[in-house]
Amino acid sequence: MEKYIKYMKEALKEAKKAELIDEVPIGCVIVKDGKIIARGHNQRETNQSPIGHAEIIAINKASKKLNSWRLEGCDIYVTLEPCIMCSGAIIQSRINKVYYGASDPKGGALGSSINVLEANNINHHPEVISGVLKEECSSIITSYFKAKRQSK
Questions:
Q1: Which of 114, 129, 60, 120 is nearest to 89 (CA)?
Q2: Mean pLDDT, range 98-114, rounded to an integer
Q3: Which of 97, 96, 95, 104 is nearest to 134 (CA)?
Q4: Out of 55, 72, 81, 135, which one is annotated catalytic?
Q5: What stretch of H or E contains 62?
Q6: Using CA atoms, how far apart are residues 111 and 43, in angstroms rounded to an integer?
């Protein structure tokens, strides 16, 4: 469990980067052979892009680093349960394991709102480990939205 915490803390650092630029604080790292090969944080507002999610950004960086769209042997750590788009990208890129912190009952696609892995005919089913540093991951998002509501 120690290594999961180490990498999720790195994902939390990415989430804090997002918060600093007034993005929803979600962060992500991708690990291969015990090394972080890619990082990402939300940049939807910054780039005015609906696909500017932390996971998509990190997956693109990892693919460039490995010179392959197949991220076999890679694990992804993300502070919030991936949405349906990001879950699809994780499946398509063949990521081995998904570790996430906070569940997302409104948009999580790995069991909270919908579970894309229940589709039997998809060609890849990554292992999912939820609740890694759940309190810290949940707190950063909750605090962000609380501050947003108070500033209105």
A1: 60
A2: 96
A3: 104
A4: 55
A5: helix 54-66
A6: 25
**Identity of residue 26:** I
For the segment 32-62, what is each residue's pLDDT rounded down to a tens digit? Answer: 999 999 999 999 999 999 999 999 999 999 9
88 φψ region: left (φ > 0), alpha (ψ -120 to 50), beta (else): alpha
Which pTM was predicted?
0.96
**Token pair belonging to 55:** 């996971």
Query: Tens digits of per-residue pLDDT, 3-22?
Result: 899 999 999 999 999 999 99
- DSSP E strands, the chain: 27-32, 35-41, 74-80, 97-102, 127-130
Q: How far apart are CA 80 and CA 51, in angstroms?
A: 16
Phi, psi of 29 (to 5 degrees): -135, 150
The whole-angstrom separation of Cα 21 and Cα 33 is 31
Query: 140 by DSSP, 3-state: which?
Result: helix
Known catalytic residue: 135? no
What is the pLDDT of the chain when averaged over all its residues?
96
